[in-house]
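Late entry, written up from scratch paper. The run itself happened at the end of the previous shift, but nothing got recorded in the book at the time, so transcribing now.
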Amino acid sequence: MKTDDAPTSAPATCGSCASDQQGPPTVLMLDLPDLDRRSEALVRAQLGQITGIEDLSLDSCTGRLSVRHRLSSTTPILDALLAIGVKGTVAKDGESSSPAGCGKPTVSSGVTSCRAPVAASSPPSPPSTGNTSRLLISNMDCPTEEGLIRKRLEKIKGIEQLNFDLMNRRLDVQHTSVDLAGILAALHEIGMQASVEREAGPSPRGQATYLIEKMDCPTEEAMLRKALEGMAGVDALQFDLLSRTLVVSHGLPSEAPITAAIERLGLSPVLQDHNDPAPAVTKEFGTGITKAEWLRMAAAGVLALGAEALAFSGMEESSMPVIAASLAAIALGGTATLHKGWIALRTLSLNMNLLMTIAVIGAALIGQWPEAAVVIWLFGVAEMIEAMSLDRARNAIRKLMDLAPETALLRQSDGRWAEVKADTVTIGGIVRVRPGERIALDGVVVSGKSAVNQAPITGESMPVEKNPGDTVYAGTINERGTLEFEVRARKGDTTLDRIARSVQEAQGQRAPTQRFVDRFASVYTPAVFVLALGIAIIPPLVAGGDWYDWTYKALVLLVIACPCALVISTPVTVVSGLAAAAKRGILVKGGLYLEQGRLLKAVALDKTGTLTHGKPVLTDTVELGPLSRQEVLRIAASLDALSEHPVATAIVRAYGDQPHADVQAFEALAGRGVKGAIDGETYYIGNQRLANELGVTNERVLQLLEQMEAQAKTAVVLSTATQALGVLAVADTVRESSKVAVAQLRQLGVEPVMLTGDNKKTAQAVAAQVGISDARGEMLPHDKLLAIEAMAAQGPVGMVGDGVNDAPALAKASIGFAMGAAGTDTAIETADVALMQDDLRKLPEFIALSHRVGNVLRANIAFAIGTKAVFMVLTFTGHASLWLAILADMGASLVVVFNGLRLLRAPGERDKVQ
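Output as recorded:
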């Protein structure tokens, strides 16, 4: 959705407030039952264009919209909502008046207003649904820990919702508690190492609260006082060494200088204020495995295998040397697993750590000490390798943020250039980027020319030329030439930040396959545990079987039954797919859409701006009289230079920078064209109606006009009062990439359909050029919505558009695609999938990637379940041992992880639609 089609605001003029007020403003309360994530931003954009609306507030949780306005009727508001497919009904609160006044202009939801002081009659604020705190849990690596945490925290009163992000070790806790101490204590009880990244609730204006984990004693306090007390704008400091917090009262427009000053001391501050953008990804944890841990695990392996070797050499498995070596191996390599198993038992969480603990203890109790040691050592090694593998998926997202440099060359007030931290640069600052450097922030070029590699943002393979007035994005690379640009987005709000944050949020949402696997594992694990218990007890009791043999088989079954490979396969694959799409300039808003893409049966395509370039260009210049083609174009451009009509603009643009003729006695002929005198001769340029009035439409002219109209072109005639001199045609040209994309969609089994508001003849002409057989013209937004509903009845359908008029259809489609979303907040926030550049070939590329993700998911699940089924059979036939079972489980886990990570590789020829 482009900004010119979907403006985010239309500021009302504040000027002399008193003169505009004919009475008190009215507050209209509406219920929007159909409100969803995609339409919320569009409601703000649509209503922001209506003159007379002073302020609006929207609660997406309750669907309640409050509009403060000075309109004589509410009809324009309701009509504007209907135009984007949102039905609003007047709430029981109805309408109320607010006292007039001329307070300071305020901004709410993107609408500037002359807002009166708050009074008792103002609409009440919607009730809070809880606060959200963000925690970093450094040892939360896989769904096992998630299940443990979920079970423990859901018992705490006041916790409303838990949102896990395993890839970045984050947990968002929505709660009604003010104090996080209880939550942190509960996590500590189950062995989770948690710290607060962001506390709930904003700090008061002019006050910044920092969590400084390294602030332990008065020495750090003295350092901070020295750094901050002399800083301009800082009013007061309040230290709390026990909770390691610092409250800074200040009068600065931003906390960035304070944060930078603390960072220079090496104290790693965390700003506890959700008004600032949350970091897109967590700090780098590395693998979390130290050299000492690897050495300890190596020693445990030597001891475990040594115990096994002693047993093979003929020594009794219950002899003291064998037991001593086994116990040492368990102590060195299995303490963490046993501790987690104890926590799982205490909290009654049936997870793989508990299964492994029972298996190891059981093996020791029946005298299989070497196998107990080898099993727990192999499990520990598998956990460490798995953690390293998962870090690769995590780093795929973190690398997005590494693209933007931490510093920028900023022009100072005295005109000199100084390198500063990028997060201290404010909007409006002028930044210089030299050849070969990465661009630190989003902005608009003010001087210089260069080519910029935009692949990290849009996925474009070729550098894009940048001139004054063009937009540049953080994370892109300046190829040649020096550029100076005005900053338009601060660090944390750039397009790159929004992409990383969207991918981060998307991978935190469970994909359909992952939800299925989680449900399956929740039933499968207890079932296998009961089965193992039955195998250990029933045969010896009922059939007189050997207790040792059947207990051993039960322990083998417990080990092979661990659902780790099955559960870990889906999140790794989905995250890899999301990161791979982001590399290609395709922003996917959740695993649901990544999986659904391969199921699409049809895709509806808007015409203007999607299949075509979205702006008219001169396509034909045909001379008919004594003038040459170049002279026809010169006279036409000279006349049209004084007109603002889109057709005239296209003709002038085609003529370029060449000198225009001097036009005298210029006159606009309403609804027909223009006329003017050049070198003493009066010329006319206009539509067929004007040519008919002048009597210059001979058979040749009529033939040309009909021919060009059939090709979806707008034709004008240049003439004198007695003779036609030429016919010029203007059209919104089709993108070459659209033809390729339509062909690729068909190869993937997806039927493309064109939906456009243009006339049917134009729709048919454009459809013929790109290869679409089903083209529907003269469609209003409501018609597009009905068309999508009809197509959805036949199977999943996608909708591709770039304007607010496409919003109802985008919202109704199974997947809504936004074209050319780079730098557009509304598109990135509202679309299910945002194609970051104006290239429709990204659509079949996304569907092809979705097919690959689906294939990998199915292969991983089949492999994980198949491996377990084979080894369960081997268990009953007596051919599987404990150490072989854990080796198989470890191998299965690593195979599915690395298979999922294959999606991260750079796109090659095999990834492209043939």
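The two ends are 28 Å apart (CA to CA).
(Scratch paper discarded after transcription.)
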